[in-house]
Amino acid sequence: MAKIKPSKGAPYARILGVGGYRPTRVVPNEVILEKIDSSDEWIRSRSGIETRHWAGPEETVAAMSIEASGKAIADAGIDAEQIGAVVVSTVSHFSQTPAVATEIADRLGTDKAAAFDISAGCAGFGYGLTLAKGMVVEGSAEYVLVIGVERLSDLTDLEDRATAFLFGDGAGAVIVGPSQEPAIGPTVWGSEGDKSETIKQTVPWDRFRIGDLGALPLDSEGNVKFPAITQEGQAVFRWAVYEMAKVAQQALDAAGISPEELDVFIPHQANVRIIDSMVKTLKLPEHVTVARDIRTTGNTSAASIPLAMERLLATGEAKSGDTALVIGFGAGLVYAATVVTLP
Ligand SMILES: CC(C)(COP(=O)(O)OP(=O)(O)OC[C@H]1O[C@@H](n2cnc3c(N)ncnc32)[C@H](O)[C@@H]1OP(=O)(O)O)[C@@H](O)C(=O)NCCC(=O)NCCS
């Protein structure tokens, strides 16, 4: 049997830089209340959300990604040509093919970097990070750009009082590259497809195209509603609170990090009550900085963790070298948690 040369990678991988982009339009709860029977007080107290950003026509998935990536590349102190792979996690890019990652890789000026999209809902950033770490350590790319980006306002039914207030738009990006020390811990991840009905698109594209009027949701004027994200809020809430705290603990254990050693906790920004409950269950000490970016960003799915990470570093609430636990969870249902050293 012929001998195949093994690929050579770095001993370890780390996040070297982070960048975020938030659309210019800030949408307060008052705007949401134009279409649903609710109140600012209810939305704030049940979800923690005060404002969110909605993308304008120019703030496409690619455009927001390029803005966030430019910042991450500068933060990492590398050139775009050094990027060997671009991984984009999104559920709201409307062209089925080609992947938006290839356009982003080209427009950023990479040297023909490998580029592909992944669909892992609100765990998408953790999935991308895990792939990137593998590529750097295995040697197929020296630097990997991981982007989480969403235009969830395109997939929100503003007449659905269970979801209208939840979602926002934005992009977060990190550069993952070589390290002499472990700086991205083992990932605890998985899927629970038996719960796939709890968060889903109201209507699959093929049925929407056929216009199966009998079964499709209609708007107040009798028109077929554009597909949107729908969820069983309480079921997802309970799953997140009970199951995800366990997964977060497993990620800490896998990395050999005690709650006392942790500096920062960056959970997916789905609901401030889920975040508070996880902090309590994990018994995180007072000194741990907890991301509550949801208040002004809403739930941006795959973008939520890198956006929150970027903001904590920008405001000085977290600093480079801090040890952070990140956990994403959502549609699938899927989840991914890991401990990282902040860039
Ligand atoms: C969506 C969410 C904020 C709703 O909060 P909740 O406390 O579960 O609310 P419920 O659906 O149980 O509804 C409670 C009550 O408020 C009412 N209500 C629902 N939406 C409302 C709204 N927008 N405004 C005012 N009242 C509302 C309900 O009718 C219900 O009234 P009732 O008690 O008289 O029947 C919450 O379920 C949630 O965050 N779920 C998880 C989301 C998540 O993690 N997603 C992750 C994947 S991306």
UniProtKB/TrEMBL annotation:
<dbReference type="GO" id="GO:0006633">
    <property type="term" value="P:fatty acid biosynthetic process"/>
</dbReference>
<dbReference type="GO" id="GO:0004315">
    <property type="term" value="F:3-oxoacyl-[acyl-carrier-protein] synthase activity"/>
</dbReference>
<dbReference type="GO" id="GO:0005737">
    <property type="term" value="C:cytoplasm"/>
</dbReference>
<keyword id="KW-0276">Fatty acid metabolism</keyword>
<feature type="active site">
    <location>
        <position position="299"/>
    </location>
</feature>
<comment type="function">
    <text>Catalyzes the condensation reaction of fatty acid synthesis by the addition to an acyl acceptor of two carbons from malonyl-ACP. Catalyzes the first condensation reaction which initiates fatty acid synthesis and may therefore play a role in governing the total rate of fatty acid production. Possesses both acetoacetyl-ACP synthase and acetyl transacylase activities. Its substrate specificity determines the biosynthesis of branched-chain and/or straight-chain of fatty acids.</text>
</comment>
<keyword id="KW-0511">Multifunctional enzyme</keyword>
<comment type="pathway">
    <text>Lipid metabolism; fatty acid biosynthesis.</text>
</comment>
<feature type="domain" description="Beta-ketoacyl-[acyl-carrier-protein] synthase III N-terminal">
    <location>
        <begin position="116"/>
        <end position="193"/>
    </location>
</feature>
<dbReference type="Pfam" id="PF08541">
    <property type="entry name" value="ACP_syn_III_C"/>
</dbReference>
<dbReference type="GO" id="GO:0044550">
    <property type="term" value="P:secondary metabolite biosynthetic process"/>
</dbReference>
<feature type="active site">
    <location>
        <position position="268"/>
    </location>
</feature>
<comment type="subunit">
    <text>Homodimer.</text>
</comment>
<keyword id="KW-0444">Lipid biosynthesis</keyword>
<dbReference type="InterPro" id="IPR016039">
    <property type="entry name" value="Thiolase-like"/>
</dbReference>
<dbReference type="GO" id="GO:0033818">
    <property type="term" value="F:beta-ketoacyl-acyl-carrier-protein synthase III activity"/>
</dbReference>
<dbReference type="Pfam" id="PF08545">
    <property type="entry name" value="ACP_syn_III"/>
</dbReference>
<dbReference type="InterPro" id="IPR013747">
    <property type="entry name" value="ACP_syn_III_C"/>
</dbReference>
<comment type="similarity">
    <text>Belongs to the thiolase-like superfamily. FabH family.</text>
</comment>
<keyword id="KW-0443">Lipid metabolism</keyword>
<protein>
    <recommendedName>
        <fullName>Beta-ketoacyl-[acyl-carrier-protein] synthase III</fullName>
        <ecNumber>2.3.1.180</ecNumber>
    </recommendedName>
</protein>
<keyword id="KW-0808">Transferase</keyword>
<keyword id="KW-0963">Cytoplasm</keyword>
<feature type="active site">
    <location>
        <position position="122"/>
    </location>
</feature>
<keyword id="KW-0012">Acyltransferase</keyword>
<dbReference type="InterPro" id="IPR013751">
    <property type="entry name" value="ACP_syn_III_N"/>
</dbReference>
<keyword id="KW-0275">Fatty acid biosynthesis</keyword>
<feature type="region of interest" description="ACP-binding">
    <location>
        <begin position="269"/>
        <end position="273"/>
    </location>
</feature>
<dbReference type="InterPro" id="IPR004655">
    <property type="entry name" value="FabH"/>
</dbReference>
<feature type="domain" description="Beta-ketoacyl-[acyl-carrier-protein] synthase III C-terminal">
    <location>
        <begin position="252"/>
        <end position="341"/>
    </location>
</feature>
